[in-house]
What does this fold into?
Amino acid sequence: MTHTSKFTIAALLASTMLAGPVFADGHVPAGVTLAADQTFTYRVLDEHSSVDPQVVEDVTGSEIVRDLFEGLMNQDADGNLVPGVATGFEVNDDNTVYTFTLRDNAKWSNGEPVTAGDFVFAWQRAADPALSSPYQWFIELMSIANAADIIAGDKPTADLGVRAIDDLTFEVTLSAPLPYFPQMTTHATTFPAPRAVIEEFGADWTKPENIVSNGAYILTEHLPMERSVRERNPMYWDNDNTIIEKVVALVINDENVALTRFQAGELDRTEVPAGQFPRLSVEYPGVAISFPRLCNYYYTFNLSDSGPEAFKDVRVRQALALAVDRKIITENVLAGGQPEAYTFTPAAVAGFTPPATDMEGMTQEERNAKAVELMAEAGYGPDNPLTFDMIYNTSEAHNKIAVAMSQMWKQTLGVEATLANLEWKVFLETRGNQDFELARGAWCGDYNEASTFLDLLDSSSGYNDGKYNNAALDGLLADAKMSTDASDLYTQVEGIIAEEMPVIPIYHYAGVYMMDSDVGNWPVGNVEQNWYSKNLYKIAE
Amino acid sequence: MLNFTIRRLFVAIPTIFFLVIACFFLMHLAPGGPFTSERPLPPAVLANIEARYGLDQPLWKQLWDYLTNIVLHFDFGPSFVFKDRDVNDIIAQGFPISLTYGSLSFLAASIVGISLGIAAAIRHNTWIDYFAVSLGILAQALPNFIMGPILILTFTLWLGWLPGGGWYGGQWQYLIMPVIALSTSFMGSIARITRSSMLEVMNANFIRTARAKGLPERTVIWRHAMKPTLLPVISYLGPVFVYVLTGSVFVDLYFSTGGLGQSFVNSALSRDYAVLLGVTILYGSLTVAVNLLTDLSYAWFDPKIRY
Amino acid sequence: MFQRYKKVEALASDMTHHSAVKGRSLMRDARERFLRNKAALVCLGVLFLVVLFVLLGPFFAVWDNETIDWGNMGATGVPSLQTGHYFGTDDLGRDLYSRTIQATGTSLMVGLIGAGMALIIGIAWGVIAGFYGGWLDSVMMRIVDILLAIPLVLVLILILVIAGRSFTTLFIALGAVSWLTMARIVRAQTMALKGREFIEAARASGVSETMIIIRHILPNLMGVVIVYASLLVPDMILAESFISFLGLGISEPSTSLGSLISEGAGTMAYGTLWQLAFPLAFYVTIIITMFFIGDGLRDALDPKDR
It folds into this structure.
């Protein structure tokens, strides 16, 4: 598409907007007047690593990629699957072959149609050792045929279990059935890639002057560590329903400065600094919001051979877990409406029923009493205090929680916990080498299903830094992969975790934001916080 | 003098060379690497990534490849953390920003600082002296990690006069607060050093002689006292200049300017080897150059210093 | 005539009882001059009071520096005498009075030791390089150039990893970087002094090089050096807070003035000004006292100021 015609279309659209409030059908409720300026400005903590869909690895980058590109499926405001480039899919009897039907009017921003071949290229590219994407493992996680061999370099990328039957039909062959496979097609790594553009520009293809994307927006400006701007893509198949014209992401490292700038009116959305939510929700009712998110926060015991003897005793682990007053942590330290965690998996996960653990049912006094009892049984007390190191990475919030926990243990159990905050990489190395006694951990789900969390405690998992090893748990997780409804199995796994306490769950994340009241339709119900700018709109003041 | 300069320039090259080697090995000694992350990569994936960036090669080979790349192609390599950009890009984008607000801050701090120091010394023990000293102390009492939030609170939220951050090509509204934040702390110390240096010089014999000869005070100060006064000030200003040029990390952090200071610190923390080495080379070359200039200038300030 | 003879006798005995003229040493001059400088004396007194506060303050403390007062976290932790939180509490509910005491003590030590190390190493390095000149000067200064350019963060991380976290590590880390600029300043001053007449005179009368350095160059350096050192003390305190900011400094529950100030600065806008006010007050006090003491010392040690 030439510059002139692009401009003409943009001008036409702009003129219809100037004529009056646009009532795009679909997601704007009746009676709402839209603002004249449809720009959404939000704060991000850090510069993102890339906007190449197969390479992006951080949350900030994924948010941008979700607006610039579109995958097979999207998520609605509650996290359910809705059609994206694909209008639907069919699956064969043993759940190993998925066939996606693509719509015929999906276009790239340069006018070329989006074809199944674009998806084949993208998925092969993601698995290609030559690209060496940090998210290569996601293709393997999706159980696509031959993925592992391709990543290891034993087979060519052409062998990947993806095929374009014709321009509008995309077929995926899995090596084993995976009940949550469709949910994974909303993830950035699976978005299509424009082969011709990549071959022309190489590593420079994601620069604003070169990039071609198929989503509701195109990247118009990128100033590293300052801001990134994306604007309406008129070629997008659903462009008529897009209301927000321009999305600006401002990189503001310090959360207090970000809050100040939000109050000055420069931002529409920012994070609430820890502890400030109660005050802000009174001063700015309806603007300070909090909703559940798909991440947990825990401390893991080192259960390997290099770990301390005391931690091998389940009574010690139980006692330490009991003596943590999660109410104080979530209400006083974080004060953001975060739910207390008594299970490893957040309750907000789809298809998961958390078991009612004993610990949850007690009052804190009861928990403390039981903790003292267990500790005494295990042989530790005021005359034989338990001592250990707890490590966490540098951050004010982690520091506060660690200090609070160590004080709770000191006051209730007489435990001497030495705190060590480590620089991020040093922390990862230390924890990864089992060079610790008690270490902080957190995990955000890759998809909305309990296994994304529980797999961490599988003895063969590369993320199991505490080296927890329980054959029964491994067995249950393996069964869950095969079954169609694993919620019962997951509940059993959580039961084992509650008994054995290989980790101390502290809290589950909540998204605590200052969201300007003129921003409409923010998907507070989507726990993965996969939000799409095309579904938002700005209300006139 | 020319001989001296040429000799120094010759020595500069091995100096930078040693700097690169030292930095390279320090970097690889530090635990963790660019790809150590919360989700440890599966071995096959990690192997692919390391092969792509050459991290699976022996250290000396990596160093050799890196140096040849720079000398032959002036290519400082790709960033390990920002997959879309290479080091040349990052420096080309960040350095002008740091240079702009850095030079302005340096000018502001030097001019105001030196003037205050001289005024205080000339009018020793008068209200000017006390005022200048108090200003100097005040400037030092506000470290720049306080200045940042205070400035934004005052000028963006309470007064609404200035935007809270960003660079937007360096338009004046976006320059004011970073320059104030960066220059204040140095202003205080420059004023202090100038003042005490001048007080010392004013007590020297040759000043007494000049006065005894009947020269007006103004001539005594400007023609005789100024140069020796500024000698220690210049040697203090040298490293300050380099620091301010490569940007203070706090200014970049609080005002989202996208300058080089933040890249410098972040690349060390995220073990982005290529960016760290690149910025270090820049920083090192600047240090060498500025130190050479200040050394040359000593001869102007004190004619007895010979090269 | 006979009466006057007695007076003359008394006068004569007076005169002959005088012993040889006793000279006044530089140090004694300096001490006298310093004691005459009222501002410096007052500040020395204030510094002494601060040290006293650090040493004796804990006896009046109701809370220690790490126990959390669960009922008084954050905004409710206003300074008051009833709760025993004389300076209020920090965001986590820990007593700010005890924490400030501990922080001031730590920061004073960090500042003084850091500045002291900078003084010793910097002066030694700079004098040798400036006085002997030639290739020795070249090599020594190029080393300074290299060290100035190496990323501080890397050096800190490595020192931390190799030597572990402790106060000694912190002092090594600070000392390792603080002497560089001092060396440059000292070298410049040395080069300037080297050409002065009195050095020529000393050489002409056969004084050895070492003696020249010790007795003629060093005293004349003291002025600028002392002032720069007194500037260094607050700088060291801030450098420590930068180190903690990176997660490489003193570990909890110990803290430093720099950390307390930066925590207080973050919550400044949220109505908890005491969290910033008290540590900042101590920090400013240290700066002011260092300034006047430094100035006083400079005045006192200036050999030309007779």
